[in-house]
Batch of 4 targets.
Target 1
Amino acid sequence: MLPVDPPDGAWPAVEEFLRARGAAEMDHPGGTLLEHLLRVARLLGVWGADPDLRAAGLCHAVYGTDGFGQALADTGERALLGELIGERAEALVHLYASCDRGVVYPRLGSGRPVVFRDRFTGRDHIPPEPDVRAFLEVTAANELDVLTHNAELADRHGPALYRLFAASRDLLSNAAWDACVRQLGRHAPDAGPAIRIAALDHLVPTVDGEDHRH
């Protein structure tokens, strides 16, 4: 169970929904996808996230991503998820799922506001800054949890992830950035050429010039 009270008692129903959609049977670093989702929500709570953001973290993989194709629900079911976690939290889940990461992630270090590209529609748009901040919080919680549970991925992708979060430092909460520094600080680019992130999937980044077959 999460160490904070869920909004309107909704999270037990959300966990039941995730189980019904197979999250407890999907393998994931650290156990199952469901266990990962619960840890991400818990970590966001530790960082002081509000209930909407914690609920979005719990459901961040429901629609899949451009790097994690095992969706638990179709985007045609947005109203259903909205009933479970609220419209605001569902909108954050959809933003997270719809992000074309190969386009958006390089933009995180190239000025503000950040122009997103929706991978479902192919259209560019500029989300409100609070939504972009929420997106980065979920991204950090997701990736840090994965790397905590897979040392090989941590060694391989830590440098690229550090650079991603350093480039978007202004959009992260202090607690999230402190966690990134604690876990990824050893990968800070004190020397050597910079790594340009081309894309980042649900689990790990894809970096130019490297082969990542997982």
Target 2
Amino acid sequence: MKNSPYIGRFAPSPTGPLHLGSLVAAMASYLDARLHGGQWLVRVEDVDKDRNVAGADQHILASLQRCGMQWDGDVTWQTQREDLYQAALRQLGDNIYPCACSRREIADSQLRLGQAGLPNLVYPGTCRDGLAPGRTPRALRLRTPQEPHCIIHFHDRFAGEVSQDISAEVGDFVVRRADGFWAYQLAVVVDDGAQGITDIVRGADLLDSTPRQLFLQQLLGLPQPRYLHVPVVLNADGEKLSKQTGAQAFDNGAPAASLLGSALLPAARFLGLQVQADSIERFWRAAIPAWEALLRAHGETPHRP
């Protein structure tokens, strides 16, 4: 890492303003990039057009700046990168096939196979060899090797060694959805490759998705970034704090200085950072060495520039 430039990113979805959970992920990725003297990019993941909220992207960018987090280079939007996703689809070639199955049909198949209760809906391969007569294609899926199984291993900087058998635990997965939108797995891999991302720091809710992304990276001939998945903030019911579970915006337009006590310090405490500061500028000066101390506690020796 000392000899290769660090490029990290924060990739929010514009489905509403930032909340504490998304600030935790943004802070971790920002601190890791700044500690390593690298670039910190911001990419708006807006391919799920039905969920986008008008103006949310600008609200997110303004909140990051009010928190003292300045990105490098230009902000990018996924909806401006359709050509890249189409090119990746063509490159995947015969590994892609049309699927007519709904989630309900996949769940019913899982029940018939005695697999009810598994954490994921494992696709049983119904359309792998072609669509049944009268069936209309909905999504596009990526074939995963069946024999031998597609077992992906990787090292996460917080979670340690991670392994997943994609064939058995996920099955052939969607790269273009039934609604015509690009699936997260394909879009994020293509974007990270195009932007030269070397380090991905994000929430642990995406840890389970990483093997699928590594598999896509292999098929597309893209380099593998390093990964670090931080714990996610939960609400009182033990659910991931998100817009879907009623998470409130941390930035309600109050003076920027108030964000130190209402947002930045709580997010730092959640990450386990020992930070004391009386201004946003001093917060970041203190937070970078605190992040370094946290990495060392996880057995990592960061390489400062």
Target 3
Amino acid sequence: MKTLTVAAIQAQLTDDVETNILHLSDLVRQAHQQGAQVIVLPELFEGHYFCKEEREIHFQRAHPLKNHPTIAHFAALARELEVVIPVSFFEKAGTVYYNSVAMIDAGGVNLGVYRKSHIPDGPGYEEKFYFRPGNTGFRVWRTRYGKIGVGICWDQWFPEAARVMTLMGAEVLVYPTAIGSEPHDPTLDTKDPWQRVMVGHAVANVIPVVAANRVGDEGGQVFYGSSFIANPRGDLVAEADRTQEAVLVHKFDLEEIERLRAAYGFFRDRRPGLYKALLTADGVI
């Protein structure tokens, strides 16, 4: 039996990088003590979610991948604990900027970077001001414990991304996230649709899904947590609440999931030749 134990870390973050790194390191250790092998942190966890406004000063938060201090810190922690940690960071690459994840394997080696493909632009989530759409394509990494596909926040709303990563061999999908209130409409609560769309990915691809969000009020923008781990049936086998920090951990039998995926027939019965409209922007072939 090949098993994989995953964790989602839900945290309240300050706007001080060192404070957040130390706090999340403690939560990673808690997850490790509970047996976690792959530990997912929230999106852009080094500080407050700065994309709620367009201000040039926030570009100072970005750093190049090479010699990135936060990545180096979690690489050392991954090596010490022998765990896999996808590290979300604001990447400066020459004259452009990306919302990126570095996949740190259990030996502390950076297996590569995924750059967020889908970039949102709306009140409170004005990411197009900061980030160029990613140029890596979707990535799946063969880590020590299993094959992991990573999407970043807005990516999680797109079924195409989940399907591609599963086709590429992913055994689990993980989504670092920063999502909460909508400043333009206080009555709009996206928590349930946010969970449901990813649960749909789990069911349609017969694959576990892990989503790690933040909590707390960051200058009037309130992040609703609700991080979760879903099994391939779409059951929430672990779920955090809307306000408290949490360390969610669950173990999966990957061989059982592989058999279940084959039995469901979703991939057997796919008709790629009929999906040409998916390669267009407007459905016109």
Target 4
Amino acid sequence: MLPTAQYLHGLRSGEEVEIEIDPGKRLLVGVQSVSEVDERGLRTVMCTLNGRLRPVVTVDESADVDVRAAEKADPSRAGHVAAPFAGVVSLAVAEGDAVEAGATVATIEAMKMEAAITTSIAGTVRRVAIGGQQQVEGGDLLVVVE
């Protein structure tokens, strides 16, 4: 159980506290540092858990940021082409382009590996949901083919 003061006010940098999670099981938890808020409203908190350093990324709800959430592809719609995993996507098509089923519409690069992203249906690219080259998360909508 977390002591009341730390529960109500949180831990300060350099502070450690012992937490009992079960009878006879205790964790030593501490905060080493807190980063500045980034452009997406996130902070990295460097914590220690039983002496091991662990980074924790958290949303700072008090930060004044205007970040547009990425649009997610609808898996039930065959024309929605999604990013298969997180990485940098480079588009190979533009709005109005005709594509065949199985055609490459973009490539994705992550961890020094590159993969083609293809469309499952033939048609015309009706909408491009990202810029020409952009960092995306898995499931983000890339293009809509109708």
